Amino acid sequence: MIKKVGILFGMEDTFPWAFIDKVNELGNGQVIAEPVLIDKVQQGIDYGYHVIIDRISQEVPFYRSYLKNAALMGTAVINNPFWWSADEKFFNNCLSLQVGVPVPKTILLPSKERPDDTTEKSFRNLKGPLDWDYIFNYIGFPAYMKPHSGGGWKSVYKVESPEDLFAKHEETGQLVMMLQEEIVFDDYYRVYCLGRKYVHIMPYEPRNEFHLRYVTEPKTTGAEHQKLMKTIHDYTIKLNEALGYDFNTVEFAVRNGIPYAIDFCNPAPDADIHSVGEGNFKWIVEHAAKFAIEKANAYSEKQNNSSWGTFLREAVAPTKAKAPKISLKSAAQVKRTKVKKAAVKATPKKKTTTKATAKAAPKKAAPARKTAVKPAPKKAAPARKTTAKAAPKKASPARKTTPKKKK
Ligand SMILES: Nc1ncnc2c1ncn2[C@@H]1O[C@H](COP(=O)(O)OP(=O)(O)O)[C@@H](O)[C@H]1O
Ligand SMILES: [Mg+2]
Can you give the pLDDT at residue 324? Predict the structure, then answer.
C-alpha cells in the first residue's frame, strides 16, 4: 500500500515545500507527501493520511481539533496533538527536574488580570500577597519573566528589580507568567530533535539580530567541547523521551560548563532557511523526511500511531518503581533549607534591597493584586462565603496585608 504523508502549515514558505520534495524523493513512490487539504471535517472520518506533520495547529484551534480526530483514526500526527495541548513550559521545567536535566530556578506567577468570567471569589485558594521575600531570594535579580505557555520571544522580559518586575507584570494581562533565574551564559545552543533520536546541535547567539543568531561559533574546543556536546545530546534525548515530542527544539544556556535547558517547548520550531541557514536547513529537511517515512512505514491500521512520552506511558502502565529523584523536594523541605541557601548564594548583595522593596511595595501593586483574595482563615482551605463577602470590591489584598511603606 502506498503511504501518504501530509503537512499542515501556515505562513512559513521554505520548509514545507522542501520537506514535500524530500519525502517524494526518498519515498521511492511508496511514500508520497503533499500539503494536507481539508474541505470538510466530519467526526469519526479517516481522511487517509498515514502521517501528518503539524506546523501550525498551535495557532489554529480548528486544525488542532481536526488533528485529534485524525490521531484517533490512526494517523501518526507529528507532534501528538493531545500532548501538545496539555503541555506548557512550567510543567516542562518540573519534568526536567524529575529526569535530571538542569533548568533555571523558576516560579509560576498568577496572571495580572483575572481570566474572563472570573471574580475575586474564583481565587479564594490564592493567598495574597504572595511570598515575595522567598520568591525574590530564590530567583535573584536580574531575572527573566516569560509566559508559561508561549513562543517566538513574545512577552519575554528581563527584569532588574522587584519594582521593574511589578511594572512589567502590569503589561501582561491575563498571561500566566514564570519568573526565572537568569542564566548568565558563556555559550548557547539550539538543538533540533526528531523522533527522539536524530539530534542536531546548533550554536546560537540570542543576542544577535534575528537573521544572525545562527551565525556563531561554539566557545569551547577539544575534549571540553566534545564532553559538552555529549551532555547536550543526552539531555535533549532525555527531555524529548519524557515529553514525547517527535519534532522539537531544545535551547540550552551554558554556565560554567553546565547546560541549562531554557526553552524546550518548541513543537513547531523555526525551520526557515533564512533564519537557520543552509546547513541547518538541509539537516532538518532530510531528517524530517526520513523520520516521516519511517513513521509511514511503521503505520498499523486502526491503531494509535502517534507518539507518547514516558511521562504518560509510565503513568498509564507503570514500570518498575523508581528511585526518588534528588531534585524534587517537598514544600516543607524547601522551607527548611532552600531559602537561606538561595538568599546567600543567589543574591548576596541584593538581599536587603530586595527584601525591603518586597515588603514595602504597597504602591507598586503585587502581581497577585487583582486576582488574589484576602488570605484564607488560618486553618480552612478555600475561604468560605463570609470571607469572600468581606473582601472589599476593589481593594487588593496585597495592599491590605502588605506592611505600610516607610519613606
Ligand atoms: N532564564 C534565562 N536566562 C538567560 N536567558 C534567558 C532565560 N530565559 C530566556 N532567556 C532568553 O530569552 C530568549 C527567549 O526566551 P524563551 O524561553 O526561549 O522564550 P520563547 O519560547 O518565546 O522563545 C531565550 O532565547 C534566551 O536568549
Ligand atoms: Mg526560545
Answer: 55
